Amino acid sequence: MADLTWTIIYTQGIPIVGALLLIYYFATGRG
Amino acid sequence: MDKFLLVLPTIIALVVVFGVVEYFKRKAQTVEGFYVANRGINIWLLTGTYVASWVSITGMMGWSSLAFRKGIAFSMWTFGFWGVLFFTFLVGLPLRRVAKYSHELIEESKTKVESKELLTPPDFFELRFPSKWIRGISSIMLVGGLTFYAVGQLVGMSLAMSHVGLGYGTALIICTIVLIWTTVRAGTPGVIVNDTINMFTFVFAVFLLIPYCLDAVGGIGNLITLTEKAKPGMWKDMGYQNALFTIISFNLIWNFMTAGSPHLVQRAYTAKSEKVFLKAQVIGVLIVIAWCWFLYISTQTGLVLLPDLTVKEADNLLPLIAIKVLPTFLAGMVLAAIFAVGFSTINTQISNMAFGAARDIYQELIRPDVTEQQLLKVTKWMIAVLSIVVALFAWTRPWFIAELTTWGVAFYGACYVPMFVCGFFWKRATTPGILTGISAGSVVFIGLGLLKFYGLYNLPYGIHPFLVTLPVTVILIVVVSLMTEQSEQEKRVAAKIREVIARKTDEPTTAADYAVPVVVIIVALIVAFTLYGMFS
Predict the structure, then answer these.
(1) CA distance A21 to chain B (A)
(2) What is the ipTM, given to two decimal places?
(3) Counting C-beta atoms within 10 Å of the first and last residue's C-beta, which end of chain A has fewer, N or C?
(4) pTM for this structure?
(5) What is the pLDDT of residues A1-21, one digit of tens each?
């Protein structure tokens, strides 16, 4: 059967990390 | 009739492209307009142009073929996704801030036109590392590296058009004429609007394709059962017969390329504000990743539907699948989408190559007293000349095109990224350090490439020249910088750039600004659970 769990975590983790960085930049007045 | 229906969407796409440039040519009458769309691009257009420029023919056709041969996981691990975040926060944002305050930073300029603004990546390099050599070498890299990449796009677009019955040569000529006319006519404003329309075309085409493909093979479960037996690992995290080392190397090359590619860097100047830039990047990366998953799942059905497809023909996988499973008109939409993807990447690349040749080489190094109208004229001529050069290369259908593409872009990862990062964040980096680093890096990279091309020497274990060049460049920049002194001017500018980058933004954050990251997180999780559901 298929097992692409780590690939899914890696790819979907990227926009989530991006969004969290965005929140951090907005909150600290850096962006 | 069938052939007409197949070609109709591409004709519509062409008509739209021409219509857009006619409408937007009025915004490209000045250098600021033609090069950076008057720095006024909104969030939707910026997202569109970035998505359309990240995803090229290589991503659409080449990576479908890679997934077909090596498993979806291989394509997903090796696409330059995290490079987008690297670029956004460590290159694009600081560069925008330097551009915004460049009137405080540029001490003197010999040129007449737009002397106080940054228009191209080499503008920043020469500002931080004051030397004509730095501008010269980085501009030649820009034009040379992008040429190789653009050749790949043109070959792919012409191949896609040959599926509707045109000869390769005829298709190539048509694509070149469209490219020259539209880019000369409306510059960056036209390119950006066309990119956005093209993004909708190719995203829509893929979401249309997936239900038909899965239906044709009896669902995803059936597809996995049928193919996993013949090619074990095809649906696992490491893919089919891949070495971890290969995955890591490609992951590094393509992410560094995304982080430093000049045609993506230059777009940062066009955004209306920092907020718009940051939001567009994060929305864009979400779209690209979801799109890749759905495209490569669709084309994997080729493992069942096209059992006789050879490795050599695998680059044609996408059009073949589309023609096989979709009604004619919709298959035509996928062909139009391939055209859209190629066009929206090559138009950005050609315009940036022309900016490099006209602004960085002609104006800055040869004729500083050129007037605004003369500079615009030279830029337009450069678009035509460089398009023809790219077309002549494409005419020969070089068999090593995939290798050349990677080779062209890896250059930026190995040289541009260290130049940006040191320029922004390391006050002590000196001009001789950078000059030594990028010159030696270029020589090593080109030398290894030529040795490989002529079959004289290959790096052991299939190591890509990028993996040698990047450390060589970085070590030389650091060592030579520590051994040399900065001029007074360089010290002043370096300190000022650090100060400008560390400044707080003057656009206060509102509650509404948080909507974008929150929605992105929710959608990313929905896609994750959907995929997890499909594959378990």
Answers:
(1) 9
(2) 0.97
(3) N
(4) 0.92
(5) 789 999 999 999 999 999 999
